Amino acid sequence: MFDNKVAIITGGSGGIGLAAARLLSAKGAKVLITGRRQSVLDEIASGDSNIRGFAADAGDPEAASRTVAAAIEHWGRIDIVVNNAGSGVLQPLADANAKSIADIFAVNVAGPALLAAAAIPHLERTSGAIVNISSTYGSKAASGLSLYAASKAAVEHLTRCWALELAPKGIRVNAVASGPVETAFLRERMGLSDEQIDAVKRQEREAIPLGRRGVPGDVARWIVSLADPDASWITGQVIAVDGGLAIA
Ligand SMILES: NC(=O)c1ccc[n+]([C@@H]2O[C@H](COP(=O)([O-])OP(=O)(O)OC[C@H]3O[C@@H](n4cnc5c(N)ncnc54)[C@H](OP(=O)(O)O)[C@@H]3O)[C@@H](O)[C@H]2O)c1
């Protein structure tokens, strides 16, 4: 159980992150969720006394230390860090530019690295765990998705390297490589039109061996399982939760 445990979940104001926050809260944890819209964070926190919102953009280099400080100020400890906030871009290589590359790596790679680094002393004290969120496309090649896919490949290798580096401190580091899940990601993160979203969803449904896109809870339960102190002998792993897409 998670009684007295404290978790940080970036991008916890919607989708997979919110499902994980609600699950951890139901199991007794205190959860600090981040997102960029204060009103959304406030609304979630007002409905669950175990959840607090903290406005922070994962792509802002200052966000990590502010987020860690907020969790410590509220609850005095950190047991779990979930690097969930993600940015996406469907962009052919020919259209890539310095800004599009920097923007995606700021949120998907630099943000998680800075948050993990800032949390180390606190996680060491609690023998805590980091769970990073990757994607099927962190290991599967996809045309037009190279920047997003490469940023998630980086997340997966950071996971393995950190697991080795932090094991002597008693900190476990794992990742969940999510398959396509029904969230706001395609519209709000990828900026796709309704027509494009329909086409992507149709294509993904056909490609997923188990025949459906996921829902946030499909992925959240594995985030929580990897964060659970009972999983004390698993580190450096990337678990695919994707209806079989990665092996198709
Ligand atoms: N959905 C999928 O199909 C899918 C598939 C594979 C992997 N993933 C990965 O799973 C993770 C979560 O995806 P999701 O689809 O659940 O997310 P989502 O629904 O698109 O967004 C969840 C929340 O994240 C917040 N957020 C977005 N950008 C942020 C930033 N820069 N800093 C802080 N908060 C931010 C958003 O609130 P604000 O807008 O208010 O900030 C939103 O409420 C991501 O890392 C994504 O790459 C998703």
From TrEMBL:
Family according to the record: Belongs to the short-chain dehydrogenases/reductases (SDR) family.
InterPro entries attached to this UniProt entry: KR_dom, NAD(P)-bd_dom_sf, Sc_DH/Rdtase_CS, SDR_fam
CDD domains documented for this protein: SDR_c (cd05233)
Name this protein carries in UniProt: Glucose 1-dehydrogenase
Pfam families, alphabetized: adh_short_C2
Its EC number(s): 1.1.1.47
Keyword Transcription: no
Enzyme class: oxidoreductase
Domain Ketoreductase: 5-179
GO function term, MF aspect, one: glucose 1-dehydrogenase [NAD(P)+] activity
Protein source organism: Paenibacillus arenilitoris
GO biological process: bile acid metabolic process
Keywords associated with the record: Oxidoreductase
